[in-house]
Amino acid sequence: MPELGPLKGETVIFTGTPKSLEVFDLVTQYGGTPYSMPLIQVNEIVDPTDEKELKRCTDFDWLIFTSQSAVKAFQSKMDRFNMTSGQIPSKIAAVGTQTAAALEKIGFAVEFIPSIFSADVFVKQFKPTEDRRLRVLFIKGNLAGSIIREELPFQVEEWTVYETGAKTDSVHSIIEKLKTVKNCAVLFASPSAVRVFEEGVVPVVGWKGFTIGAIGHVTERALLQAGAEVDVKPEVYTLKELVIALARRKEDIQ
């Protein structure tokens, strides 16, 4: 019953790269109108050493993935060199249920997910029981922080498999929507999107006049540092839970 939903009359802008239509359908079910206006674009890094690096994964005790983008780039390399999950005996750790689901979809069994989906919580909770000194490979994007490499008490190596860049063509679309739509919510899923928004959108429309949602505390911190006030942050760090939290907030203030 969208016409009776808590997001009736609300325009909801997703600023991250879309991974699933589920969240757009959920906004519609709540009576809102979803728009995908990604401020970042993700591309696999293709390198002549990819086959060698992929085969070297078998030397590690654990592989760590913190994003679906890393999984997608890793899968692309596996497909290109005809490698299957069965050929990689390493244990798998994932930050987030969506990242875990993407890994399971390509045949991996995920053995560890932190209770809160962020790298700073991951390094506190990731405590494998193996006695020997572990070798760990963090499969990441070019903007990933250093916390996993620096704070895990293991031998941690990194493989950068994708890069994130600004998608500036969405900036104009977001500006026009914020100027012309009365009730609007802008949802952020990464500090990278916050930076592009701050540089391209804020000088024109500022941070006021629309609802701001952050997927988790790292993105929330980036928004606060940029001068924004965060209206919505879910307890579970997924876009689905962010939409649910937004709907609850709108319901409470109606």
CATH top level of the largest domain is Alpha Beta
Quickly give the structural class: alpha/beta
Order of helices and strands: EHEEHEHEHEHEHEHEHHEHH
Largest sheet, spatial ordering of strands: 3-8-7-4-5-6
Helix amount: 25-40%
Report how far apart the termini are: 17 Å
Give a quick summary of the entry:
The protein has about 250 residues and is α/β, with parallel strands linked by helices. Helix content is about 40%, strand content about 20%.
Q: Would you write up a description of this structure?
A:
- The structure is a single chain.
- The chain is of the alpha/beta class and 254 residues long.
- The chain folds into two domains: 2-39 and 167-253, Rossmann fold (3-Layer(aba) Sandwich), CATH 3.40.50.10090; 43-165, Rossmann fold.
- Helix content is 39%, strand content 20%.
- Helix 1 links the parallel strand 1 and strand 2.
- Helix 1 runs parallel beside helix 11 (239-253) and helix 3 (68-80) runs parallel beside helix 4.
- The radius of gyration is 19 Å and the shape is elongated.
- 36% of the residues are buried.
What distinguishing features does this structure have?
254 residues, four-stranded parallel sheet, Rossmann fold, alpha/beta, 2 domains
